[in-house]
């Protein structure tokens, strides 16, 4: 079962202002890993400066990432977004950013699900894989002390039964013994139901609640911001960006993206190692 928890995103005045500005603003959705930062987590100076310039120009720039909240906040700070929105956990969590708030942000939407059916099915086929999940309180629970920078917090080691009993926002599965292609074949064989999933560059699986993607979260925000579909831009490189690139009026794949990601995009930029995101961002300032 999917549970959606929301608070109001924008008031009448906010919507009026957004409508007035919709003809001059772009709504820009930016993936993080492999797009804004390389696979070592480094953001180049050209990318940072281009992103900051687009923010300063008044466009609605949103981070849209598979990362969890605490791993997303440093990226938001680096590119200078202090007001607006961000999408984390592949659409599972949406933030409203406002410097007047105590923490500078609030969670306005959260989609949770029961991970037990997926966990049981996956463990039968992938008994040696590592499993972790973000629970509804923002904690990360993991088997075998599984840790990743995208979690943003130190994972708490638990047994598999504890994972089965938790309520999840994000479920992660990692296997060192499988290729991404083998991982995809296994998932298709299992026939996961009631969840949305994507396979990463390695044998890495991210699972969210059914129907929840970066695109679903961004579409909700697009309506609130009053952005016209043709003035939406998205840049990404991963399989979890496919829906987002199809959603955007201008979907741009990074140069190093897999073939199926490139196929979903309207255009392709340079790779993350050649500052591909900066080229796209600077084009919005012309």
Topology:
Blueprint: E1 3-6, H1 12-21, E2 27-30, H2 45-56, E3 60-64, H3 69-78, E4 84-88, E5 93-97, E6 105-112, H4 116-125, E7 130-135, E8 140-142, E9 156-157, H5 160-165, E10 168-174, H6 180-190, E11 195-199, E12 204-209, H7 214-225, E13 232-236, H8 242-247, E14 250-253, H9 259-264, E15 267-268, H10 276-283
Parallel strand pairs: 2-3, 2-13, 3-4, 8-9, 13-14, 14-15
Antiparallel strand pairs: 1-6, 4-5, 5-6, 7-8, 7-10, 10-12, 11-12
Helix pairs in contact: 2-10
InterPro entries: Cof (IPR000150), HAD-like_sf (IPR036412), HAD-SF_hydro_IIB (IPR006379), HAD_sf (IPR023214)
GO molecular function: hydrolase activity
Organism: Pseudarthrobacter humi
Description:
The chain is built from ten helices and 15 strands. The protein has helices at 12-21, 45-56, 69-78, 116-125, 160-165, 180-190, 214-225, 242-247, 259-264, 276-283, and strands at 3-6, 27-30, 60-64, 84-88, 93-97, 105-112, 130-135, 140-142, 156-157, 168-174, 195-199, 204-209, 232-236, 250-253, 267-268. Strands 1-6-5-4-3-2-13-14-15 form a nine-stranded mixed sheet, with helices on both faces. It starts with a strand and ends with a helix. This is Cof-type HAD-IIB family hydrolase. It comes from Pseudarthrobacter humi. Keywords: Hydrolase. InterPro entries: Cof (IPR000150), HAD-like_sf (IPR036412), HAD-SF_hydro_IIB (IPR006379), HAD_sf (IPR023214).
């Amino acid at each position: 079962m999917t549970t959606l928890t929301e608070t109001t995103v924008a008031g009448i005045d906010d919507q009026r202002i957004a409508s007035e500005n919709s003809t001059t603003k772009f709504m820009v959705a930016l993936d993080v890993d492999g797009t804004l930062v390389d696979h070592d987590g480094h953001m180049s100076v050209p990318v940072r400066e281009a992103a900051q310039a687009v923010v300063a120009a008044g466009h609605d720039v949103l981070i849209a990432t598979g990362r969890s909240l605490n791993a997303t906040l440093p990226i938001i700070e680096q590119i200078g977004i202090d007001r607006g929105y961000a999408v984390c956990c592949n659409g599972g969590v949406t933030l409203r950013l406002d410097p007047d708030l105590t923490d500078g942000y609030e969670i306005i939407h959260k989609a949770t699900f029961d991970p037990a059916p997926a966990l049981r099915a996956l463990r039968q086929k992938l008994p040696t894989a590592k499993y972790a999940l973000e629970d509804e309180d923002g904690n990360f629970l993991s088997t075998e002390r599984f840790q990743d920078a995208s979690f943003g917090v130190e994972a708490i080691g638990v047994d598999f039964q504890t994972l089965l009993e938790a309520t999840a926002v994000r479920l992660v599965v990692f296997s060192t013994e499988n290729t991404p292609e083998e991982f995809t074949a296994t998932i298709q064989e299992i026939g996961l139901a009631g969840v949305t999933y994507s396979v990463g560059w390695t044998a890495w699986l991210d699972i969210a609640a059914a129907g929840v993607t970066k695109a679903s979260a961004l579409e909700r925000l697009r309506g609130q911001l009053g952005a016209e579909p043709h003035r939406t831009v998205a840049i990404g490189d991963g399989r979890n960006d496919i829906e987002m690139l199809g959603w955007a009026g201008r979907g741009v794949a990074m140069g190093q993206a897999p073939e199926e990601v490139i196929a979903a995009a309207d255009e392709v930029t340079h790779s993350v190692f050649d500052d591909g995101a900066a080229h796209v961002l600077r084009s919005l300032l012309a």
